[in-house]
Amino acid sequence: MAGLAPPARNTFDRDCPSRTVLNHVSSRWGILVLSLLRERPHRFFLLRDRIDGISEKMLSQTLRQLASDGLVERRVRATSPPQVSYALTPLGQELAEHVQALLDWIVLRTDDILLARARAAG
């Protein structure tokens, strides 16, 4: 139905569907997967190897969640054995730009944050 405004969303409401998307995207693994896929498509094991500390189970779950949200697509090449890779959809690419800005800020300001922690602890 053209012309209808999208429903109002309130991420602060626990029943809002945007909360689920926020949880998928803002998990530590979701953020790192989106950042890596921003570079280029990756195969499962390359993602696992590049994201230190992620288990295969968590990577699989994260990819499934991001795919169900329309942010990541699973690509299968008909080879023997089949080659599976993961890439961002246009929606995922748009989001990954914002995620990368957040990661860049965190890296830039980590020393300041660690200094603040030390002051608070001592």
UniProtKB/TrEMBL annotation:
Task: Read off the Gene3D superfamilies from this record.
Answer: Winged helix-like DNA-binding domain superfamily/Winged helix DNA-binding domain (1.10.10.10)
- Source domain of life is Bacteria
Claim: ATP-binding is one of the keywords in the record: no
Question: PROSITE patterns given for it?
Answer: HTH_HXLR
Q: Which organism is it from?
A: Allonocardiopsis opalescens
**Keyword Transcription (UniProt):** yes
UniProt keyword terms in alphabetical order: DNA-binding, Transcription, Transcription regulation
The HTH hxlR-type domain is annotated at 16-114
Spell out the InterPro entries in the cross-references: HTH_HxlR (IPR002577), WH-like_DNA-bd_sf (IPR036388), WH_DNA-bd_sf (IPR036390)
- Recorded protein name is HxlR family transcriptional regulator
One protein family per Pfam:
HxlR
What are this entry's molecular-function GO terms? DNA binding
Organism placement in taxonomy: Bacteria, Bacillati, Actinomycetota, Actinomycetes, Streptosporangiales
